[in-house]
Structure formats: structure tokens, C-alpha cells
Design a protein that fits this description.
- The protein is an alpha+beta fold.
- Helices cover 26% and strands 25% of the residues.
- The chain has 22 helices and 40 strands.
Length: 846
């Protein structure tokens, strides 16, 4: 929301010398966020004055163009020129070359004299062109940065102005004004108006606030105005789509009149371009009061206005000249011919006002927030009106806004208002909240006085009544966010001052700290970071195709949680795997030149099992019974913590005398083993089969109990090609909750022996389908306590090995903690290991 300071000063006591930065500094105190400052003088400066064209000589050129050689008086006749500088004529008459033809002798125009700077860093100086020295420029609105019209220069009489020659044109056009831009959070819709911001500024500074709505005199509605019917009898979202509609008629308007400079300047500073006088008035009132209004050409209406839901297949041509197919949930404004506007979003082209409009019907209505938000999103039609309606508009201000538009049409467009008017609908019940004594102090940590509490509510515009147990507060109609006693407590803290809230660190109860799973998670994630991986965070929203690919080892459709209101139709499911998000992160980095990546993420996945959700949601403010909570939890999908990683490119950058190594499947498997090691878990690694991974380079990782922990290996070549990722990209994904459940309570470090080790190798022929890891575990068990380490270093099948068999070669390292082992002791331990492998797996030593 942009706030022109001259406008704000009409309703709040803003010092004359206050800057936009000063205003934002005050608004920050009451919880608003500063965004930017807008000043026309940042891009427009120097001598910009009112001039009068004395003569115009048309001179055809050889290129077919005709220019005007003009003499323009920039100082009143008989007065000396007080400005000086290169190109400033002391006589007060400047010679100017101009290519526009929409002016004549005697017109008063805006002249930018030598030394001035226009938007785009366009510097004005005396320069020779078309055989003349042009000492200045007669400016258009686009050149001044105050509009888009470039059909000709700005003739001040077209704005209804007759200023003194030589006067400051920037002051005349209100270009010295400035605007403060703030970010408005969704719960504070009333701040989308000068009225709301002025009230907040008064809160922040403790000064007086003048309500602009209070200055508008609304005549009583006699019900004899333009006929309107509200026919949304079956609300789609639980409340009527429209619960108030005010209509007023102004006749005999001159819609072609120019918008006054003060209004167009304020609109421009507020971020809205000037269109036409009736439309500008409507936008001006919306910015001032926060209530969007709409102007119809009443002579183009046929029959009663009816507010209803759209029919299936119904179409409407909107103001942007696009024909839109409507949804039965769309709320429509209609007449006898059909739709004339999507309620609260955009009007129809068939009834829009134009320069030929004579009679204007003014609409100010109150619409359901959800209906407007859904229609805006459905038709991709963001507008200033929908931005306000979908966040909530004050029901009580509709008639005031309509009357304000009527008054401005009468004043600026020469119209005459009908004495009759229409105001149909039913007011919503006021929100009444009970605030117990002491609740705010307990909630915020400050002992607020009774005067502070009642003063806060009075300043808010709420009705407050004290009683023995506290206060009863009736929220003002423009504060849709005030619903509970917690909301009231936050308002007290906000207006009394956040700076008064003491800063105290909570004291941890003795004997507590991180839980076992929290310690394990921290240990595992730190180990990955220490190994050189970078942690990232991706969105949990994915497509159905991604869930089907990564959500299970078997091909086919996977049960997934579908979002009722997704941010994007493409990503409308909760993830079953962390890998799709990681792949998108890797893809984005890779496309920007980061080729050597080792990324990991820890996050929840969502695995639906049985029925999702519950028939009803318990009310807020009271803790539900345990059986209700159990039902709520039962309706949630399983959400195990999952850790995934992806590796692309090389393990290190290239350097002199160093050849980097490309990541491969073994690196992904090593990362899994690293996570298991730091929490003391033994793993079983087997050849795996997963549709997202390469069919021959995938490991299935399991616990010794047999539960599958996850997969690691090279991603499928077709998947990599589809995502524009390098070939041989590897990844892993494990169920961290299963890993933590299997973790040892205490990890005991092994004693470091100072005696030398003895190594022996053994090659065993086993069945080709037997996992090498199973044989390795058996050797470790059979060798006993003297075995320090064992690892597989070769797998062979072929000549000399029978079909269906394979040879596994292991290196065994033996060491004792109290002596140097003899060769016989090591051999005996090795023989025990081989014997157990023979008994358990039928292994034969080569």
C-alpha cells in the first residue's frame, strides 16, 4: 500500500516537514512493514515552469516531418527573468523546437528549462536542432513521468487550470508530494486505505485521527432507487456471496472532463494510473476508505440488477476485452441481459463508462471473502478491488463510499444526484469478545493498567464495557481479525508498545535437553555436513507423477495426499519422497553453472494409510477430549522423517596436479553407511530394484532385522535425461525414523591398541544371489574379538567359477589390545570365520 503524504495529512497529524521515511518509522511501531519510498523529485528536478505559447511557426522538413518553432513566455510580461544559466533567456521568452501539434498560440504549457532533469536522466540543455537553438522543451505527461499519454504535450487548460506564467509547474502538478509504501499483512485489510493508515499513524504517535467516513453525509435510503435483488440463496462457502448492495444514481455527468491534477497525482503516487474521471473517482474513494466501488453506464443497463452465482457454461466479456467462461461458483452481478461483472473482481465491458456516458449508477457492495478469492484465482484476475475484498471490507462503510463517489461526481463531473437510493442486505452480527482480567498480562508478560486496556480498545474504535471479571469488547466493523481474547491481548501489546515487553530467556528445566531422536538427528545431519554435503530445503508439494516415480519401489500409482487448495495445479500433492524436491534444486543449480553438487535434505514425507481426515473439526479455544484428539491423529497420514541426498559432477574441483573423481554409486552408499555409523547401526546392503534408480547400480539398504531402510545408487538414465541432469547422477534416500529406532542407546568407543595389526585375505565361493554383506557379517561374527576390520575388495564370476556362483574376496585385519598377535592366532581366527561362513552360507574357500 502506497500512502501519499499530502493525503495522509488530511486525516492524521503528520508534521509538514515529515518525510516518507519518518512516516514509515512511526508505522513500524504498530507492526507494519516498510517497503519503499516514492518521490517524483528523485527523477524530475530543475526549473520546470508554466509557460505561455506566444507564437507557433510550422516548418516542414526534408524528412517529411513538420516541426514547430515556438516562442514561449516563461516570465510574466514586464517582469525580469530571475533564473540564470546557459540557455536561460534574460527576456523571459524562450525559443523552443517542438514536434507536437496539439497546442496553439495562447495555450499555457509546462516548460522544462535548461538545467532541468527529466525521468530517465534526460538532461535539458540549449542545443541546436532543425536550424534553431532550442532552449528548453515543452513537455508531455509521459516526459514528466506523470502519465502514459504521448500523443501531444500537456496543455494545462485541458485540466481546467489557468496558472500564472512562470509559476512552479511541479508545485502546480503536486510533484513535490511523496509516498511511503508499506507491506500489509493479510489479517489487517483495513490498512489497504488511507483511512486505516491514518488511524494506525494516530495509534503510533498518540495524535488525533480524523475519520474521512465521518465527513460524508449519507441521506437515508428510501428504497426507491435502482432495483437490486440478492439471490445467492445457497451459499457455496457457508456465507452469502453478497450481504449488502448499495446503488446510487448520478445524472447529467460530463464523463469527458479531465481528472483534476491533485487527484491524478495522488492516484499515481498510490500506484494507480489515471483512466477517466468516473473511474478515477471510484479508485480514489477505494484508496481513501478501503471500500471498492464500481461505476456503470446506467443507460446500458437493462432490467433489475441481480447478484447470483453463474450458470454452467455462462460467459462474460470483462473490462480487459477478454471473454471468460464462468464457473458455477463465480459470484456475478447481472441485469436482464446476463452478466455485467464478476463480483468484486472485474466489471463487464458492455456496461463500462465512457466519455459519452451521461448517467452513472454507482455500486458499493460487500462480498464474501472466499468467493472473491476463488474467482480471482480461478480467472487469474488480480485487481485492487479483489485484493481488498478477499481480505475483508468494512460492511458499514458501503453507503459512505457510494455517497463519497456521488459527491465527487457532482463536484467534478457536473452531475446531479438522485434523491432516491438502494441499500439492500442484512448486517452481520457484531463480534463480542470477553477478556478476563489478568489474561493479557499473563499472555504478554506485562502488568497492563485498566486505563491502558480500555484506552487501547477505545482507540481501536471498539465498544468496551468493564465488569467484575474483566471487560466485554465489541470489535469494530473494520477489524475482521479480532475474534478471540488472544487477539485482544496482542492489540494491547501492539498499541501500548512492543518495546515495553521485557526480554527474558526461558530457563531450561533441570535434567532435560535434547531427546534421543533429536540428538540422533543432529548427529546424523552434522556428519553429512562434515563430509562435505550442503543442506538445502525444498517445498513438500509435488506432482502425482513424482510421487508415482519416487514414492515406492514398485511401479504403479501410489496413494498420495491431494491438497484441496494447492499453490499450483502442477504441484497439488504432498510428497511421498524428498528426492523430487532435491532434484529440482540440483537442476536449478546445474542450469546456473554449479555442476559439482553434493546436496542433502531432511524432511517429512506423507504416506496415507486408511481414511484421511475426520468428519468434523472441534471448535477453537477449548482443548478437545482425548478421544477426539485420538480421532484427529488417526486421520493424519504417516509422516516419517526422511533423509535424502543427491550427487552430481565431481567430488572436488580440478586443480594443478589434481584430477577430480566423478561421484558414483559407491559414494551414495558410503553416505548411508556414514549415517548408520554415527548412530551405531549395522546395515545389510543388497542388490536393489527401484523404478527411479539404474537397474544394475542400485543398493537396497536394510536393518539387520530385515526392515528396508531405503535405497542408494545411480538414478535411472531416462529420469536424468527428462530432468536435464548429468548422466551418472547418484542419490540416496532412507527412513530416518527407522534408523533412529534401531540406534544403540550408548555407543562405546573401541580401545585403541598400540600393538601392530596382522592382515589376512580370504576368497569364498558362494551362491551368486547371496548378498556380499551377509557373508561379511558372518565373517565378522565368526572371527571373534580379535577381528578389528573386514571389508570386501573383489567380486569375481567367470572362468574357473561354476555357473550361478561368485567369488568374494575379503581383507581381514586382526589386532589384540594387550599383545602382538602371532600368525597362528590370526590364522585360527580366520579359519573360525571361514567355517561359520561354510555352515551358514555353504561358502567354499578358493
Amino acid at each position: 500500500m502506497r500512502i501519499p503524504l499530502s493525503w495522509l495529512r488530511e486525516y492524521a497529524q503528520v508534521p509538514r516537514d515529515a518525510t516518507a521515511e519518518d512516516v514509515m518509522a512511526e508505522l513500524v511501531k504498530v507492526g507494519l512493514e516498510e517497503e519503499a519510498v516514492h518521490r517524483p523529485t528523485d527523477s524530475l528536478s530543475g526549473p520546470v515552469v508554466v509557460g505561455q505559447v506566444l507564437s507557433v511557426v510550422k516548418e516542414p522538413q526534408s524528412n517529411g516531418k513538420t516541426i514547430n518553432w515556438c516562442q514561449v513566455r516563461v516570465v510574466p510580461a514586464g517582469q525580469p527573468q530571475t533564473l540564470s544559466g546557459d540557455g536561460i533567456d534574460p527576456s523571459g521568452v524562450q525559443g523552443v523546437v517542438c514536434g507536437a501539434h496539439n497546442f496553439t498560440e495562447g495555450d499555457k504549457v509546462v516548460v522544462t528549462l535548461p538545467g532541468s532533469i527529466l525521468p530517465g536522466d534526460f538532461r535539458i540543455a540549449a542545443r541546436k536542432t532543425y536550424g534553431h537553438v532550442s532552449a528548453g522543451m515543452i513537455a508531455s505527461v509521459r516526459e514528466l513521468g506523470i502519465g502514459e499519454d504521448h500523443d501531444g504535450i500537456l496543455v494545462l487548460s485541458t485540466l481546467g487550470l489557468d496558472p500564472e506564467i512562470g509559476s512552479d509547474a511541479m508545485e502546480l502538478l503536486a510533484l513535490y508530494d511523496q509516498a511511503a509504501e508499506i507491506n500489509v499483512t493479510p489479517d489487517r485489510s483495513y490498512c489497504f486505505s488511507i483511512r486505516g493508515i491514518a488511524r494506525e499513524y494516530a495509534h503510533a504517535t498518540g495524535t488525533k485521527f480524523t475519520d474521512p467516513a465521518g465527513a460524508v453525509v449519507v441521506p437515508p435510503s428510501n428504497g426507491a432507487g435502482y432495483p437490486v435483488r440478492l439471490e445467492d440463496q445457497a451459499p457455496v462457502y457457508g456465507t452469502p456471496g453478497c450481504d449488502r448492495f448499495v446503488a446510487r444514481t448520478v445524472r447529467g455527468v460530463d464523463a469527458a472532463r479531465p481528472t483534476p491534477p491533485w487527484m491524478s497525482t495522488r492516484l499515481r503516487l498510490a500506484g494507480i494510473r489515471s483512466i477517466s474521471l468516473p473511474v478515477d473517482i471510484s479508485n480514489y474513494v477505494m484508496l481513501e476508505l478501503g471500500q471498492p466501488t464500481h461505476c456503470y453506464d446506467q443507460d446500458k443497463l437493462s432490467g433489475d440488477i441481480v447478484v447470483r452465482r453463474a450458470h454452467a457454461g455462462e460467459t462474460l466479456k470483462t473490462l480487459d476485452d477478454k471473454v471468460r467462461t464462468l464457473d458455477p461458483e463465480d459470484l456475478l452481478i447481472t441485469d436482464g441481459s446476463g452478466g455485467i461483472g464478476i463480483a468484486g473482481v472485474m466489471g463487464g465491458a458492455d456496461t463500462e463508462v465512457s466519455d459519452s456516458t451521461v448517467n452513472v449508477l454507482v455500486e458499493a457492495a460487500h462480498f464474501d471473502e472466499v468467493s472473491i478469492a476463488r474467482s480471482r484465482r480461478r480467472h487469474r484476475l488480480p485487481s485492487e478491488a479483489s485484493k481488498r475484498f478477499e481480505r475483508g471490507v468494512d460492511w458499514q462503510v458501503a453507503d459512505v463510499a457510494a455517497q463519497r463517489v456521488v459527491d465527487l461526481l457532482v463536484e467534478l463531473a457536473g452531475g446531479t444526484a438522485d434523491q432516491t437510493g438502494t441499500d439492500v442486505g442484512t448486517a452481520p452480527d457484531a463480534v463480542v469478545i470477553d477478556l478476563p482480567a489478568g489474561f493479557a498480562a499473563q499472555r504478554i508478560g506485562i502488568d497492563f493498567t485498566a486505563d491502558q486496556i480500555t484506552g487501547t480498545f477505545t482507540d481501536l474504535g471498539a465498544a468496551v464495557e468493564a465488569h467484575d471479571g474483566g471487560w466485554t469488547v465489541t470489535a469494530p466493523s473494520w477489524r475482521h481479525d479480532l475474534e478471540t481474547k488472544e487477539d485482544l491481548s496482542e492489540e494491547i501489546a501492539r498499541l501500548v508498545g512492543y518495546d515495553l515487553i521485557p526480554s527474558r530467556l526461558p530457563v531450561a528445566p533441570p535434567g532435560r535437553g535434547l531427546s534421543k531422536s533429536q540428538q540422533q538427528r543432529r548427529r546424523v545431519l552434522q556428519a553429512l555436513a562434515d563430509a562435505g554435503l550442503t543442506e538445502v530445503l525444498s517445498y513438500p508439494f509435488v506432482s502425482a507423477e513424482s510421487n508415482n516415480t519416487f514414492g515406492g519401489a514398485e511401479a504403479g500409482e501410489q496413494a498420495s495426499v491431494k491438497l484441496a487448495n494447492p499453490l499450483s495445479a502442477e504441484f497439488s500433492y504432498l510428497r511421498r519422497s524428498v528426492l523430487p524436491g532435491l532434484i529440482e534444486v540440483a537442476k536449478r543449480n546445474h542450469s546456473r553453472g554449479f555442476r559439482d553438487l553434493a546436496l542433502y535434505e531432511a524432511g517429512l514425507v506423507f504416506l496415507p494409510q486408511g481414511t484421511l481426515g475426520t468428519p468434523s473439526i472441534p471448535p477453537l479455544g477449548v482443548r478437545p477430549p482425548e478421544e477426539v484428539l485420538d480421532g484427529l491423529y488417526d486421520g493424519l497420514p504417516a509422516q516419517p522423517l526422511t533423509i535424502a541426498a543427491i550427487f552430481t559432477g565431481n567430488d572436488s574441483p580440478a586443480a594443478a596436479n589434481h584430477q577430480p573423481r566423478a561421484w558414483d554409486w559407491a559414494d551414495a552408499l558410503d553416505a548411508v553407511r556414514l549415517m548408520a555409523d554415527v548412530v551405531g547401526v549395522e546395515l545389510l546392503v543388497e542388490q536393489g530394484d527401484h523404478q527411479a534408480y539404474h537397474p544394475g547400480r542400485t543398493a537396497r539398504v536394510s536393518l539387520r532385522s530385515g526392515e528396508i531402510l531405503g535405497y542408494a545408487g545411480e538414478l535411472h538414465p531416462k529420469l536424468l535425461a527428462a530432468h536435464d541432469l548429468p548422466a551418472r547422477t547418484v542419490a540416496l534416500e532412507i527412513n530416518a525414523d527407522l534408523l533412529f529406532e534401531a540406534a544403540a542407546d550408548v555407543i562405546v568407543a573401541k580401545h585403541l591398541s598400540t600393538f601392530p595389526a596382522t592382515t589376512q585375505d580370504v576368497a569364498l565361493v558362494v551362491d551368486g544371489s547371496l548378498p556380499a554383506d551377509a557373508v561379511l557379517a558372518t565373517l565378522r561374527e565368526g572371527a571373534g574379538e580379535l577381528l578389528e576390520d573386514v571389508h570386501l575388495f573383489d567380486v569375481y564370476s567367470g572362468q574357473g567359477i561354476d555357473d550361478g556362483l561368485k567369488s568374494l574376496a575379503f581383507a581381514l585385519r586382526f589386532r589384540a589390545i594387550d599383545r602382538t598377535l602371532t600368525a597362528d592366532e590370526a590364522s585360527t581366527a580366520r579359519d573360525h570365520a571361514v567355517k561359520l561362513a561354510a555352515e551358514r552360507h555353504g561358502a567354499v574357500q578358493r
